[in-house]
Amino acid sequence: MLPLIALRNLLRNRRRTALALLVVAAGVTGLLLTAGFIRYSFGGLSTAIVEGGLAHLELIPAADLGGSPAATDRLGQPPGLADWPAVKQQAEALPEVRAAGAVMQLSGMLQHTERSAPFVGIALEPARMRAMGIVPRLRAGQALPDTAEPGRDHALVGQGLARALQVAAGDVVTAMVATADGGLDAVDLTVSGIFTTGLQELDARVIQVHLATAQRLLGTSNATSVLVGLHDPATIAAVQSTLRAGLAAHDPPMAVLGWEERAPFYGQVRGLYLGIFVFLGSIVALLVTLSTANTLLMAMLERTREFAVLLAIGTTRVQLALLILCEAAWIAVLGSALGCLAGGALAAAINALHVKMPPPPAAADPVDLALVMAGSDFAWAALFMGAVLMVAAIPPVIRIWRLRVVDGLAFV
Amino acid sequence: MSADTPLVELVGVTRRFRQGDAQVLGVSNVDITLHGGEFVVVAGPSGSGKSTLLHLMAGLDDPDDGTVRFGGTDLRTLDDGARAALRRRSIGFVFQAFNLVPVLSAYENVEYGLWLNGVSGAARKRRATEMLEAVGLAHRASHRPDHLSGGERQRVAIARALVNAPRVVFADEPTASLDSATAGEIVRLLVSLNQTQGTTFVVATHDPRVMAVAPRVVSIVDGRLATTTGTGAP
Questions:
Q1: Could you give phi then psi for residue A213, rounded to 5 degrees?
Q2: How many CB pairs below 8 Å do chains A and B form together?
Q3: Domains in chain B, ordered, with CATH?
Q4: Residues 65..104 of A with a Cβ closer than 8 Å to B: which?
Q5: What angle, rounded to 10 degrees, do the helices at A84-92 and A236-246 form?
Q6: Taking the complete model, does pTM exceed 0.80, yes or no?
Q7: Do the chains contact at B103 and A317, CB–CB below 8 Å?
Q8: Chain A closest-CA separation from residue B59 CA (Å)
Q9: pLDDT tens per residue, range A141-177
Q10: Which pLDDT tens digit goes with each residue over B10-35?
């Protein structure tokens, strides 16, 4: 009976109730749109990271992990993964694995005509990377050929580096690297294409070459690590665990790293966005609490005499408190429903407009303003509003608890 | 409680109120005993202490001095919840301003008291309908209070007060907001219910029509009992 009375009570002052519903709906809509944008940003960022070259997992000798003492000792040494074909094969034997490919990191100087600039290079197996879904974002020219024969080596050059060296597709550049014995070695590379990583700073330094080219240049048959791409990103933890077990006896000891472990800035961005979301949620909660608490308190004060009568005829204070909470719950439910409808409609409209936003700091390209709406976000937003309304109901509940019946009966 | 135990008993009851820095006497040193089945009018001019007396008898307020017993139980010994239960089960109220719940229909207002006492749905429906029939308002059951006349509202309030078959009904100026003819109907209804159902009525009023039909009239002036006439027996 209390929910029925509570619902009808909301209709007594329709304008005030409509305003409260509007406030709740606006809060829910704001939360949903923000969550949708953050979800889209996380999704886009993680996809960009994974498909930008990190892949889902990396299998790397533990001694080569950045920051470890062993890795410091190995600076200037050739890469340490000798049996990378076997490691790759072991990974590709798992049904969850889409493809695996060896990579090598190198650095040196790149020269074109009279100009030179330092580079960081990623040596890879183009066909395997393509099988993982990792394809370069070409600005000009073509991707690397699948094979690299001696004397016919190719490179992709980052667009910033290409600009600095005035390189175009089809030009020949010379890459020079320091060898393990302290000497210098060089190779001529035909520029297949110009590409971007999406990050301006990296574009000013990066090149991609075939793994075989880098191995010949450094005089080694080793690789730095093996990258693993999965069919379903949700299986990362399971595959990581399986590979750790499978490589437990490997010599040298291997580390199996997820992409998030290798992209610390992703965690920082995620932390920043979540901080913004919590801050926004706090503001929404405060505004909705203040607004609806006033609505509920006014409704209670206007009905002081009625509450006193209800107490006089035997209603308990707990029941009256529940009545107030029911009214708050109705506002939360109806307001959240309106907010979810509005949020869903607005998100659909924004997505349909395909709005472009300026590139974020350090990014090379504009980004889409798009929203990814998840069912759980709707549920959480509604639950959040329910909690906020329960808090807003505290002041009127306290007044009910303190109401003296005889004072209430005399209330005009 | 034995048959001789008074239904309501006030012994040396005094209630003072604070108005600013001054203390105002609500009722002073009142001794009164009410028995089951009585129809008692508490008469007196406005501000004489009639409502205060009713509030004390019903456990809505506590005296500064003296003792109020309901069915032999000192009301001071009951906490808030126990008093609510007592009022729910044993006491009915009728107010001058009717004080129905405006968002509930006549039927739902009567049914509410039964719901408070945990009566099941079917029994609630039967009993609430009976009560509305008893006050002649079965045909107006679905109407909300704002669609009822003053007399009809007071009849609904009486049905609400009686629906749990309370031992006593306290009526505070039940005819004050009604026209003469309607007030007469309400008075006859109260007397009839007292005589047919044996419900005890304590009616605070200064309406001479009510006093005229009351077997017992307790007069109160400036918070003090002045005179008592009759025995209260119907």
A1: -60, -45
A2: 61
A3: 8-229 (3.40.50.300)
A4: none
A5: 130
A6: no
A7: no
A8: 9
A9: 999 988 877 778 999 999 999 999 999 999 999 999 8
A10: 999 999 988 888 888 889 999 999 99
